[in-house]
């Protein structure tokens, strides 16, 4: 049966949609009427009357950058799970390289960092030295500058190759078209020349913030950019620059290459080779309407400290990989804890939320921190809140590290030993 017409598939997609936020009122209301919503959605799919909504956008500020995050309704989340989990993902997965580590089952930041270290070790085992270079590439405004027409063309290409049911293929294409229409930005107040510049240059996703709603007439829409927070955007983020991955891995034959969404890396002993690789990446990025961040894109020595995904790395002459957390990350977390304390005193936040946020942060970073850094963060938490975080079973190592006194803990980095050849 066509996946989009299968009531069991729709019901399962709704169950997945509820797992992310079971505490919300909208989720609980959807759960109460789950069977009814499934029947209504099946009817709308079969009649071709389903249309996704634009969702609710809210602004966040992270590391000095402001961006919109989109929250979809439960019905739209159900359709997104149906489209992505049952159709898009199976069609795209076989065309992704193994070292593409974002937004996939069994992969994530931890997987990507392990592969990054594995490639450093592999480089040393291959060449027997730490004399070499790392190419680090980053896109500027990645999600906000993906052109719709080019992206839809890429998605259709893979769907046509993998989806065998003609009716399912037709519905999938129509859904993708409807979803992309919710990504469009109202640019009615701009001239045609200004809009043309937006298509050829970088677009600020916050350009309509604080704008008079009367100026947003819907007469002119910018078909560029996808919404962060929409599940379809995750699939787009990992597949859209697939040609760059294939160019690096297959055409240029770079074994020590990986990508996490819009962050690329490649290791090679020849600096000129990496420059040629970067030229090829630039050409493909230009064809796909993507903008390379020249400030963050660089070629650096493997023997000198360099940063990737907020972790500082260096390869020693004995093959050890030195890794340590970016000091700015610790400074930012200390400021957050102090800000949380002010909000707690004002009654604007509860203690459990603060504790969970801190445990999430330190649980993901303590392996890259020295004992002294861990102890100092633990001491600050104790001073601010008069208690230490409570840990469940399985965090004995972290609990022991946080309980140690900062006195005498002079270690400044963690290391991974070189693998046996």
Describe the structure.
It contains 15 helices and twelve strands. By secondary structure, the chain is an alpha+beta fold. It starts with 6 loop residues before the first helix and ends in a 5-residue tail after the last strand. Helices cover 49% and strands 13% of the residues.
Features:
single chain; 421 residues; alpha+beta; four-stranded antiparallel sheet
Topology:
Layout (H helix, E strand, L loop, with lengths): L6 H13 L5 H8 L1 H14 L8 E7 L2 E7 L2 H19 L16 H19 L5 E6 L9 H15 L3 H18 L1 E2 L5 H9 L20 E2 L8 H9 L2 H10 L5 E4 L2 E6 L2 H17 L10 E4 L4 E3 L2 E5 L5 E5 L1 H19 L5 H15 L5 H15 L10 H8 L10 E3 L5
Antiparallel strand pairs: 1-2, 3-7, 3-8, 4-5, 6-7, 9-10, 10-11, 11-12
> In percent, how helical is the residue content?
40-55%
Strand order within the widest beta sheet: 6-7-3-8
The fraction of residues in strands falls at: 5-15%
* Strand count: 12
Kindly name the structural category. Answer: alpha+beta
Largest pleated sheet: 4 strands, antiparallel
- Strand/helix succession: HHHEEHHEHHEHEHHEEHEEEEHHHHE
Q: Count up the helices.
A: 15
Rg: 24 Å
Task: Give the distance, in angstroms, between the N- and C-terminal Cα atoms.
Answer: 52 Å
Chain-averaged pLDDT: 90
How would you sum up the global shape? globular
Unreliable stretches (pLDDT < 50, length at least 5) are 405-415, 417-421
